[in-house]
């Protein structure tokens, strides 16, 4: 055949440590039909500060693969909610081969066509809270690339039509495909008139949706005569691929005929006719290729003895129980994103007769519906059982309904089909099923009623069970409960939802309480974070006593909004919000930075130098508001204003020191008992905030931060400025001159006016 190679790539993305599915990076690919091999090239590299991160530690990267929907992963081994089905996926761990780069390869032979999803994440970290911009963070970037090789012009088999093939010595196999429409209960593939070497040295393999693999359904034509391979309950509206392969060691030419017979379960006594007048009657796609094949809607070519394709009578062997029952559709009602209800006509109460199953179909739209949770609920009306020991079994299968001919069977699985089993009876009248990230397409629910006896389950007689059926699509399981938040996430044009848990709760639906915070612990952490702000009361009292009324107002503002911000910021149920969270956060950050600003400006004592020192207070408030609106968690939002204010203070103190030719403040008591302790306390608070705080110790480390910052303000706030007392002019000598008076009390910066007398030094 002719191979075509396609190449797909995605933009590199920064990976995050795993906390929940909301922290993973999801990549969406689409694999075309007739693909024989798909190769993912997984490129990972480190960056630090815009350059290669050679000094970054090696952290393993886990990548998950799944066809049809995103992977349902559980790297922390938490418990899933009850009645939750967990679909499987492939997983691959990448290790580092170079200091700043590594590459992994993941091959899939004959992959299923359609949507494929890759999920990648880093291992869970210790939860350290780092200040943004304090140091260059190590970034791990992940970029997947996909290379697919697909066959073109695969020969198409038509039901009831014989195709002749001659396999040359250099050819090892021949590949065909046949489309299976709805209401098909059986696919029968047969190899006829095999000629060449002794016997029929051929393998016959059949697989749905993609070319066969070595472990697909296989039949050795050498050992079986006739060479017939049957597939019961095939997937509806899909291609089936037929591979005829030579045995190893066969060198000569082998010729054979291959034919396919489809059984229509809506008419079990009849097989599908060999030719159909149009594509609509066969539910086949309007466009599919085959070298020399028939075009749908065309009449079959006239046959001749030399023609390679001609109809021959094929015996049809039907099995009992191949009859399919009518499939009742459901009405789709979209309420919101991933909020869809499926209503049953003349429902929601469903009657399940004793002699036949009730079959329903739920259609999930491609791509759009795979990012939510499919929920199914069965509730039995016990009063409808008339005292009989009736059990209603439900089988939910993807692609085809499971209607077994064995009326006493309670399984939802076959050799090629796996489903989900639900059951309700008089004892357990309610059954639920949740499927996170379901595969899109048609889901079929088959309901049957059986009566329990001493010998097992048997068909019931004259008892019609009534079941309340509810099917709906939701973003998350139970909206993540009270300890989680359901987040709507997006990767490129694909939407999906995931839970983000809090207060130590984990799991897909935030239902795993193995590490959950107790109510007492939540109450204690909230009280610590809130009541630690009471430490601002002493600085407020000192500011009022020293006539720093503006500073006192800022401290009160900070204390108020910090208290209620932390009361609203709690992860558990001990939460109290008086305003919107964003408003409280902004006011808390603004109050904290303004407290630093006004304290340092007050320490500078600019009033004698700058007549309108209040301009600096107003300027600081405006600049800090602008900076917080740009980035509230940036490092320079804290350091920038603080360093600027400290620079102003240093200039003012230096000017006084030079003018007086004496260190300012001049007394060692001021340095030893106020400035040095206050500076040390503030430095300790900054170190705790920047390097010690983690998610686990946040509630008490941040409370200590509140205490230290408020305590440092009480030490650093300067004493009350005494008004200057200018004395009257002293008698001057004759002649012209001038008089300069200096208030030494103001220059010394003393608290107690009794320490030094007020002297005016006047020179003429």
TrEMBL record:
GO terms for cellular component: plasma membrane. Pfam families: DUF3522. Its main location: membrane. It is found in: Cell membrane. The chain crosses the membrane at residues 516-536, 548-567, 573-597, 609-628, 634-655, 671-692, 698-717. It is a multi-pass membrane protein. Residues 499-510 form the EGF-like domain. The keyword Cytoplasm does not apply. It comes from the Eukaryota. Keywords: Cell membrane, Membrane, Transmembrane, Transmembrane helix. Belongs to the TMEM8 family. This is TMM8B protein. It comes from Peucedramus taeniatus (Olive warbler). The lineage of its organism: Eukaryota, Metazoa, Chordata, Craniata, Vertebrata. The gene is Tmem8b.
């Amino acid at each position: 055949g002719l191979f075509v190679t396609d190449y797909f790539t995605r933009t590199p993305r920064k990976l995050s440590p795993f906390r929940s599915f909301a922290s993973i990076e999801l990549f969406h690919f689409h694999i075309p039909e007739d693909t024989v091999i798909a190769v993912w090239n997984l490129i990972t590299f480190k960056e630090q500060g815009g350059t290669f991160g050679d000094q970054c530690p090696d952290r393993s990267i886990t990548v998950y693969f799944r066809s049809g929907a995103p992977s349902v992963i559980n790297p922390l081994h938490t418990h899933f909610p009850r009645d939750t089905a967990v679909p499987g996926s492939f997983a691959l761990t990448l290790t580092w081969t170079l200091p700043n780069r590594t590459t992994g390869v993941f091959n899939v032979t004959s992959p299923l066509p359609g949507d494929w999803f890759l999920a990648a994440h880093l291992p869970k970290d210790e939860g350290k809270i780092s200040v943004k911009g304090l140091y260059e963070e190590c970034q791990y970037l992940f970029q997947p690339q996909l290379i697919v090789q697909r066959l073109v012009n695969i020969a198409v088999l038509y039901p009831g039509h014989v195709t002749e093939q001659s396999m040359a010595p250099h050819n090892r196999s021949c590949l065909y495909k046949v489309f299976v429409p709805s209401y098909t209960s059986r696919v029968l593939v047969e190899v006829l008139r095999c000629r060449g070497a002794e016997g029929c040295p051929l393998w016959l393999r059949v697989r749905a949706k993609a070319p066969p693999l070595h472990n697909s359904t296989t039949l050795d034509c050498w050992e079986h005569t006739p060479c017939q391979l049957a597939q019961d309950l095939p997937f509806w509206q899909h291609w089936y691929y037929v591979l005829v392969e030579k045995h190893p060691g066969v060198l000569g030419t082998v010729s054979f005929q291959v034919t396919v017979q489809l059984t229509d379960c809506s008419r079990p006594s009849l097989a599908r006719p060999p030719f159909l007048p149009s594509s609509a009657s066969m539910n086949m796609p309007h466009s599919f290729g085959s070298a020399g094949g028939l075009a749908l809607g065309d009449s079959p070519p006239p046959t001749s003895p030399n023609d390679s394709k001609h109809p021959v009578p094929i015996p049809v062997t039907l099995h009992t129980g191949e009859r399919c029952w009518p499939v009742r559709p459901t009405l789709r009602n979209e309420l919101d994103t991933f909020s869809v209800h499926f209503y049953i006509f003349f429902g929601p109460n469903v009657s399940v007769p004793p002699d036949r199953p009730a079959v329903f179909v739920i259609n999930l739209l491609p791509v759009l519906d795979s990012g939510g949770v499919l929920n199914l609920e069965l509730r039995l009306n016990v009063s409808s059982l008339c005292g009989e020991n009736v059990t209603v079994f439900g089988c939910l299968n993807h692609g085809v309904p499971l209607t077994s001919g064995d009326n006493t069977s309670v399984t939802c699985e076959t050799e090629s089909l796996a489903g989900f089993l639900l059951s309700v009876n008089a004892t357990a009248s309610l059954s639920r099923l949740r499927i996170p990230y379901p595969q899109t397409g048609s889901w079929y629910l088959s309901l049957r009623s059986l009566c329990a006896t001493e010998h097992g389950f048997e068909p019931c007689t004259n008892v019609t069970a009534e079941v309340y059926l509810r099917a709906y699509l939701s973003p998350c399981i139970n909206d993540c409960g009270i300890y989680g938040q359901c987040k709507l996430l997006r990767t490129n044009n694909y939407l999906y939802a995931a839970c983000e848990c809090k207060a130590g709760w984990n799991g897909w639906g935030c239902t795993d309480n193995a590490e959950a915070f107790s109510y007492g612990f939540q109450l204690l952490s909230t009280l610590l974070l809130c009541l630690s702000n009471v430490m601002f009361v002493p600085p407020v009292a000192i500011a009022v006593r020293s006539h720093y009324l503006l500073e006192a107002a800022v401290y009160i503002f900070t204390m108020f909004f910090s208290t209620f911000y932390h009361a609203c910021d709690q992860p558990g149920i001990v939460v109290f919000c008086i305003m919107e969270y964003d408003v409280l956060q902004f006011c808390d950050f603004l109050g904290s930075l303004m407290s630093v600003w006004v304290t340092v400006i007050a320490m500078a004592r600019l009033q004698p130098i700058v007549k309108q020192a209040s301009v600096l207070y107003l300027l600081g408030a405006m600049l800090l508001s602008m900076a917080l609106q740009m980035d509230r968690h940036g490092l320079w939002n804290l350091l920038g204003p603080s360093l600027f204010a400290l620079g102003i203070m240093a200039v003012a103190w230096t000017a006084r020191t030079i003018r007086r030719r004496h260190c300012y403040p001049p007394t060692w008591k001021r340095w030893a008992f106020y400035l040095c302790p206050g500076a040390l306390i503030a430095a300790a608070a900054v170190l705790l905030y920047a390097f010690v705080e983690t998610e686990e110790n946040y509630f008490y480390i941040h409370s200590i931060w509140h205490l230290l910052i408020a305590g440092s303000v009480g030490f650093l706030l300067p004493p009350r400025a005494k008004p200057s007392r200018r004395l009257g002019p002293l008698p001057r000598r004759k002649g012209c001159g001038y008089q300069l008076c200096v208030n030494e009390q103001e220059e010394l910066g003393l608290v107690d006016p009794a320490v030094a007398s007020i002297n005016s030094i006047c020179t003429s």
